[in-house]
Design a protein that fits this description.
- There is one protein chain.
- 51% of the residues lie in helices and 10% in strands.
- With 202 residues, the chain is mainly alpha-helical.
- It has a single domain (19-202), classed as minor pseudopilin epsh fold (3-Layer(bab) Sandwich).
- It has a 3-stranded antiparallel beta sheet with strand order 2-1-3.
Length: 202
């Protein structure tokens, strides 16, 4: 059976930017249901859980065609939410540090430009999905959107930061004001954790 990352903070830790009720439902109901559905479909073919979740996605052609869509959707749901929770914290680590700070300055000129670019990309996403900061094939930073539960691992990209742009991520607190949610995400983003992922994968 696969498992999901434990939350490193309490449900109300991200207030006032994300409310306690949203974190609780999002983590306990939404995130867990991707996990349960993934384990269920894999149990149905007596899968031996030999791969990490990242490898599972990369080796999707090992699985029967008729369940690939289900596996990708639910594995993506688990991976994307793991990264989303890791991308945030109440620790006020919202300024880039370490090698990630240098890479952001090199690629975008300044943190301010990077932030504007990330917000711009998130704003143009249509429907449900995510905006990711990824390490691309040339080991450079790139900001991309994916739809539904698609994970960048599917394209050989390594995601290191993400914002969930499904309505369930913000609707209780922000209703239709998605732009405000995206802007406030930068109050609680945790660049210490994101930099750890960057330095591990560069
Ligand atoms: Mn979600």
């Amino acid at each position: 059976m696969y498992e999901i990352s434990k939350l490193k903070y309490s449900y109300n830790a991200l207030e006032p930017d994300i409310d306690s009720r949203t974190v609780e439902i999002h983590y306990e109901k939404h995130h867990h249901s991707y996990l349960n559905n993934l384990n269920k479909v894999l149990d149905s073919i007596n899968y031996d859980y030999r791969y990490s979740l990242e490898e599972l996605v990369k080796n999707i052609d090992m699985f029967p065609l008729e369940i690939r869509g289900d596996i990708l959707f639910n594995a993506g749901g688990v991976l994307n939410h793991n990264l989303y929770w890791l991308s945030m914290s109440p620790n006020k680590n919202n300024i880039p540090v370490g090698k990630l700070k240098d890479a952001i300055n090199e690629e975008y000129g300044s943190f301010e430009n990077f932030k504007n670019e990330f917000i711009k990309t998130a704003t143009i996403l249509k429907g449900s999905g995510y905006t990711f900061l990824v390490i691309n094939h040339n080991k450079k930073l790139e900001i991309i959107n994916t739809s539904n539960q698609e994970t960048p691992y599917l394209y050989g990209l390594i995601p290191i930061m993400t914002i969930d742009l499904w309505e369930h991520a913000y609707y209780l607190l922000y209703q239709n004001r998605r732009g405000e949610y995206i802007k406030n995400f930068f109050n609680i983003v945790d660049f210490v954790e994101i930099n750890k992922l960057y330095e591990k994968n560069i």
